[in-house]
Lipoprotein (Yersinia mollaretii), 265 residues
Amino acid sequence: MKRIMILITLQLISFSGGCSLYPVLSDIRLNYITGSYFEIHFTQSLVDIGPAGDVPIPFSQYDQYMGLGAVWGDDSVYTFYQEKNPALVKRGDTYSSAALRAYYGGHSAVTRRSTLFSGGRVKYCVGYAATSPNVGNGWINATHYPSGMCITLPPAGEWCKMTTPALVLDHGRLSVKETEGHSVSDKLNIKCTTGSTVTLRLINNEKYIRLSNTARANIFVDGHSIGGNFYLKAGDNSLTISDQLTGITEPGELNGMAVLVIEPL
């Protein structure tokens, strides 16, 4: 009987590789400067986001520019403030191709930015996005980015950090018949400055890691499908990350990777 090796890696830090790379921000911290502005500190790296990066940017009758910026607004109207010298979006550009042009064109060197603080129910996120400038200093409400690529900002002084550098869910050698429903787990350690309710999700907002055209590993946090909300106490926390294989029909070696994101509610 032929046997297969299933190696599934959850990268809890960003990684490079693959052909649909997209710049992703991590280690995000906030510092309030005045009552009107705050400063966002972060690091950047390239992540393979899979098919989401190959989607063409929606056409616009106006020139569109891709680059790093911050989105803020309420549930109906959002505004995107972009870094200087964004990349002009060309006809047929995918999210990945345009974002990489902005990244290598200078935006990769950016590690902080200041943005408007409005308070109240206004929501904020940061990331690479494409948008069209108005005939003025503002931005029209037509901001485009792959699902999950704009990272929600934590409250100032409140943050949770994953202290486990990476999770490896190694299924070892299995026969094809043994793979369906097979599950392994690993522990994720998180340290928080204060008690917080957070969302844990894969960066592409999917519930699984793709292994091949048919095969995937469904991901769970403490027995619940990933993407749910969890309360983390101040100090050290531990969660169980597990998977469940499905759709494997042929022998061979399969590998999968993903990025896990913690976001405040």
Observations:
- The first strand starts at residue 3 and ends at 11.
- The CA atoms of residues 27 and 120 lie 24 Å apart.
- The longest helix spans residues 95-104.
- The domain at 3-13+159-264 is CATH 2.60.40.1090 (Immunoglobulin-like).
